[in-house]
Amino acid sequence: IQRNYDLSDTPGLYLPGRGLQAKRAFAKNLDAFPFPEDHLWAASSITEDAEFLLPFQTRRGCPMNCSYCSTSTIEGEIFRKHAPALVVEEIARQAEKGFDRFFFVDNTFNLPASYATELCEELAAAELDITWRCILYPWKIDEKLVRLMVKAGCREVSLGFESGCEPVLQRLNKQYNSQDVRQIAQILGDHGIHRMGFLLLGGPGETKESVEESLQFADSLDLEVVKVTTGIRIYPHTALARIALADGVISEDDDLLQPRFYLAEGLQDWLPETVHSWLAERPNWVT
């Protein structure tokens, strides 16, 4: 820009009045990128915070295409992964600096299952004195993987099951059902993993009855924490954005840079009040 170069052939760049300049290409080899320069933060002050977890992303991309999620737009639909050995090497380096709690921020730690297994095997073999949490997609998780996760240091998981109503799960384009969620939650609990469940209420087709069904389902799982969100944020280039446009929730002119939310008709007042009443009786539920 300083040298006044012509940027019109730069893939993925938006130019005023000209739109997108060719489709952005995704890097295939994540190992070609360096890990963050950790001299830019003060490890000693951070590690003294008992609540701090060092974030770590081992892969990019997601093929699941949940109706509201922006990951496939931002990162692509194909999984691109760091070599497990390099991940463990970097975590070991950070552990030497005093970090002992990590958060794998990958949207679907358990997918692909083969990669999750290999990564956990590498972590377990390294015998690092660390613990970690991750985000699980409640599908294709068995007791063998959970045991391996625990051996590798997993102590907490975020379990975004979003709903306990089958038609709503289908509208969100989820590949699992409520029975999958129940089974996985049970396995995780049996192995002593702290479970934080997530409910996402108010999307397309949501009704008072489906909300009640989801709340009762979440309650029956007996999770350590449940986080409830009312209304679903609308991100560009998602199925939810197309539905919101068709339903008149947003217009063609909305760039969605400022947060906009989808909340099914008829739930605007009732849903927040209902969730508030449920939370009042459940101290481990949050919004």
Low-pLDDT segments: none
Beginning-to-end CA distance, first to last residue:
43 Å
- What is the string of SSEs from the N terminus onward? EEHEEHEHEHEHEHHEHEEHEHE
Mean pLDDT: 94
Question: Please, could you describe this protein's structure?
Answer:
By secondary structure, the protein is of the alpha/beta class. The chain has one domain (46-286): Aldolase class I (TIM Barrel). It is 34% helix and 18% strand. The protein has 10 helices and 13 strands. The chain has a 7-stranded parallel sheet with strand order 3-6-7-8-9-10-13. A two-stranded antiparallel ribbon has the order 1-2. β7 (131-136), α5 and β8 form a beta-alpha-beta unit. α3 packs parallel to α4 (113-126) and α4 (113-126) packs parallel to α5. The longest helix has 14 residues, at 113-126. The chain is globular. The N and C termini lie far apart (43 Å). The model has no long low-confidence stretch (mean pLDDT 94).
Topology summary:
Blueprint: E1 13-15, E2 19-21, H1 43-47, E3 54-56, E4 59-60, H2 71-75, E5 80-81, H3 84-96, E6 101-104, H4 113-126, E7 131-136, H5 143-152, E8 154-162, H6 166-171, H7 178-190, E9 194-201, H8 208-220, E10 225-230, E11 232-233, H9 239-246, E12 261-262, H10 270-280, E13 285-286
Parallel strand pairs: 3-6, 6-7, 7-8, 8-9, 9-10, 10-13
Antiparallel strand pairs: 1-2, 4-5, 11-12
